[in-house]
Amino acid sequence: MGLIFRIRKKFGFLFKWFFKKDRMKIGIYGPPNAGKTTLANRILRDWTGDVMGSVSNVPHETRRARLREGVRIEVDGKSVTLDIVDTPGLATKIDFHEFLKYGLPEEEAKRRAKEATEGVIEAIKWLDDLDGVLLVMDSTEDPFTQVNVTIVGNIEARGLPLLIVANKIDLPNASPARIKAAFPQHPVVPISALKGLNIDSLYKAIAERFG
Amino acid sequence: MEGVQLNLISKDRLDKMASMEKIRMILDEVKSGKIVVLESGLTPEEEAKLIELTMLEIDHENFVGIEVESYPQKSKGFFDKLFGKSKGRLTVIGPANRLKTLQKRDDLITALVQLGEG
Lengths: 211, 118
Known about the structure:
By secondary structure, chain A is of the alpha/beta class. Chain A has one domain: Rossmann fold (3-Layer(aba) Sandwich), CATH 3.40.50. A six-stranded mixed sheet of chain A has the order 2-3-1-4-5-6. Chain A is globular and about 50 Å long. The mean pLDDT of chain A is 90. Chain B is an alpha+beta fold. Chain B has one domain. Helix content of chain B is 32%, strand content 25%. Chain B has four helices and six strands, in the order βααβαβαβββ. In chain B, the strands form two sheets. In chain B, strands 1-2-4-3 form a four-stranded mixed sheet. In chain B, strands 5-6 form a two-stranded antiparallel sheet. In chain B, α2 crosses α3. The chains are: A alpha/beta, B alpha+beta. Chain A: Pfam families: MMR_HSR1. Chain A: It comes from Archaeoglobus veneficus (strain DSM 11195 / SNP6). Chain A: GO terms for molecular function: GTP binding. Chain A: This is Small GTP-binding protein.
């Protein structure tokens, strides 16, 4: 890695602090089916009256990154304007046979698998162009996945602000505490993007973390 | 004899390799059905690059991706953040149809290696 690039990365957070942008570009990241688009839709509905994209229980429903610019969030006198990037779910493997289990015809399953691989590449490329990340985890699942570890590691290496969203707390076996224990160095906000539970706490945390 | 080849790669050897050289070596080994254990692991950027290249090489018939597990980075102090170079930790990588992670904590990875096609 070039010396200049390393210096820029190491001290990037200082430059960001001194020359704070009036708009932050925030990526919504996480594994497939963690609820990224549901969260993006919730945020957009609450602050713009619009939505980001369709959701489904079939993994990799979002296969292209979507950008929504100029979403203004105001909480307790603090405000932040965000450009929000809803990214495809990150994964280390994609097998079209998995989609067949959801009733997709073989050709469509293969097409979805191909698009999903392209979506993962696109999501990784976006990491270089962000000012912060909302990392969405399914709080009913084990948080120690390689996808989560890789995203957290990359955000830490870039010195960017990170907020972990422990989603799906409306489900009976949800355990946001497990996520907090796994990543104690970062703030974790438990929510249900689907039901809107604790969503005000998330907006407060977003305004504090990215504002 | 039926079995799975396990390649344990030392930190010394990894330190001599450039990032892309490491990633290419890992993918070639894994695509040929081997399990690779890296003593010093990969940096977060290398992990992201490995996932990216893996996606480029997935096909429907022979290679559906990788199973990769490493411990999270230990949280660093202020001066480490300023001057420290991010180092990887022990990492296990294998073909997704052969290697399955059973359990993972911040200090333990339990993996199951399957013989033949998973």
